[in-house]
Amino acid sequence: MSADFLYGIEVVINGLMAGVLYALVALGFVLIYKASGIFNYAQGVMALFSALTLAGIMSGQVPFAHLINAIFGTDIHYFGWNVPVLAAIILTLIVMVIFAWCVQRFVFRHLVGQEPIILFMATIGLAYFLEGVGDLMWGSDIKTLNVGLPQGGSRFVEDATAGLGGDDFFGFFIDKLDMVATVVAIILVAGLIAFSQYTKQGRAMRAVADDHQAALSVGISLNFIWVLVWSLAGLVALVAGIMWGAKSGVQFSLSLIALKALPVLMLGGFTSIPGAIVGGLIIGVGEKLFEYLIGAPYLGGATENWFAYVLALLFLVFRPQGLFGERIIERV
Amino acid sequence: MKMKKLAAMALAGTIAATPAMAELVIPDLSYRTGPYAAGGTPFSDGYQDYFNLLNARDGGIGGEPIRIVECETGYNTEKGVECYESTKGEGALIYQPLSTGITYQIIPKATVDEIPIHTMGYGRTSAANGEVFNWVFNYPANYWDAASVMVNYLLEENGGDLSGKKIALVYHNSAYGKEPIRTLEELSAMHGFELSQLAVDHPGQEQKSQWLQIRRERPDYVLMWGWGVMNQVAVQEAANIGFPMENFIGNWWAGAEHDVTPAGAGADGYKSLNMNRIDASLPVFAEIQSLVHEAGNAAGDGSNVGSVLYTRGMYAAMLAAEAIAKAQEIHGVSDVTAAMVRDGMAALEITEARMAELGMSQIGPEFSVSCENHGGSGLGIVQQWNAADGQWVALTDYIAPDDSVIDPLIAADSAAFAAENNIEPGCL
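Predict the joint structure of the above. Result:
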């Protein structure tokens, strides 16, 4: 096989892996939209906030240290201990559940029955508020997130495939972190599907997603379900934050990963968990292949950001509800 | 009772008649929030702490206290322009926007308002031509100098011959990132190396395609023009594909501690340029610690004192303070105006004796500014990251750029700007 062909395959494999990372972000959007009809603009910031919290807890950072020091004239920054990864993840999840409760109690409970655009605007406000709280709580410096994830290309894969395409082919490059992200995403999706299919709360969540009024009439608490859904979105945000934060350190640009999820949602639909996964894979492969075949050689490169949206728009024209979105039926 | 009333009125009259203490107003267009805060915060801390030191130690500059007016830009060009507009009326003497985008927008405004801008190692490169850009200064070095210093360093490493070598430029897909391309193309033609260009879109969180391309094409060297998260991801991706880090060189905005620490040991050996030396043992830092931090007047929490960008911010403040002092000397007044500060900048001379006197010996190269040359010497050093010790180590002395390439480019670009804007080149 020619080296160019094999490199094309390498681009596809890496595109699939990148797509998994995009899908991780998109999943959080889908969970909330499906259950409450809210397009959660704050999902990217939730990923940032959860990763900041995890890194802060792990390093024993004192939350709101700058504020405390400014008010009381103290000079404290760290407790002086390090928290093990698992305990820090559990504590972060508790923080995200508290956040979910606060969002429900202080924001959306007061907006029941409002137009979707109002709810959307509320999530924009929430995004900026959460970003500010994250800064105040943990500071704006870049935090190294070391949760024991492997880094670097897999030498095993590289060595095993190096002889396939002659001297010009150096073997397939596959990032070990991307491989872990793929496994984690599979477990996460399987877990979410099992939760929604086989648990009482999961079935209640689906009932709310299908029909709020009907769910209420059979005694399902909307408040509880929405807290549950925002908590699950917090869990997904934490997973996405860990995977992306492990690459670049935890920093405020993490909130911009939401931009990578939008074309995935346009393509996969806002209401389908499998849609988010498949959409992510298509976007990942599509943008990487376009960059490899056309963008870099003919257009000066850096085409991925806009091409993802072009691809999503193309799908949108022919299937407005997305690949796996619920069919739009209009009865006259 | 009447006497007491009269005495009180007389006292009040005396107080009212006393002229208000003049202030030297220096805006700080900082960014402590948003995606680029990790770079903006230490620079701003260093910038402000030095002025606070002058206030605490010397009572300001020439006896006039300094008032810093901080405005948060978030590294957003629109907000940066708003900051400029909202602070210029306070009597701003000099701007240091720390953003090429903001610089481009405020050059015409500051020219009309007659307030000097100092863009240290960033901004519009051809502003080095002081006859066209009367109010803009970019000493001690600019982007094109940086590109040339990188190539000169590689020439040294390769026995003066780069012919046949492959050099890739990974750059932020913005006005900033594109700045060195023209210079590198000229140098490529001159020295016979093959230049490939790889653009990375803002913010640079995802660079898999670019690094797979580098892995396929196997360039001998990779140069980088990055900022923000792009730097950390690039260093990590380079380590991931096993690119030899000693052949990966960032410019001076891709060479801070936070650019390399997320990649851990993988970043070991990565190189970058610097326009100034870093040395935490300089006496000036001890003074800042005792007179600013311990007095509770620090801009930040003290965690980044002596770091790359803190040092650069402090160095920028020193250059501004020296220009103000020069303006006071030229005009014979302590309460200088922005126009006078411009004169001070145009006559600035930085010597080793002066830097040593200020407690920062050899922090930067010696250079002088003139009406015609606002760009300084253009020198840069190459430093290398030692991951085990967690510090940057200077590898070289100051390396000079190739002025025979840079000067014609500056002349051509500034002439085009002058023609577009109906500017008659000349000194003020």
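Residues 13-19 of chain B have pLDDT under 50 and may be disordered.
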